[in-house]
Design goal:
mainly alpha; binds zinc ion
Length: 124
């Protein structure tokens, strides 16, 4: 169970409507599902695929790698892994004390709307 299984609780946490919350939660659940699928290595069947990089400061190269068998692949094929759905800015800012949040984001409702629009654009 995650917070995204409970849109009502989520709405209460971040201060949005239930309708907004349902959109957000269903997108994050979908992303998590897709990410779980994309973690499966096509070569050995392990579920540990992760995104690695060469650590260069500029022109950093990224790829997908399996820690089990060493399989590597083009990171562009792994949209859901790239999206890093585990960071939810709405939840991050949403649980802050309101004065603190207002210093970060002046228009909270506008921010929610933009995040929803962004989430709906993510095609996975
Ligand atoms: Zn593998």
């Amino acid at each position: 169970m995650s917070i995204y299984d409970n849109p009502k609780e989520y709405a209460g946490k971040i201060g949005c409507t239930l309708e907004q919350s349902e959109k957000i939660c269903s997108r994050y659940l979908k992303l998590a599902q897709e990410e779980a699928k994309q973690r499966i290595c096509p070569k050995c069947g392990g579920d540990g695929l992760f995104i690695d990089n060469d650590g260069a400061d500029y022109s950093c190269e990224y790829w997908v790698e399996c820690p089990n068998c060493g399989f590597t692949d083009d990171v562009e094929k792994y949209q859901a892994l790239q999206l890093g759905h585990d960071f939810d800015p709405l939840l991050y800012f949403g649980v802050m004390p309101i004065e603190e949040r207002n210093r970060e984001i002046s228009d909270w409702q506008g921010f929610i709307e933009r995040e929803i629009a962004d989430l709906e654009k993510k095609d996975v």
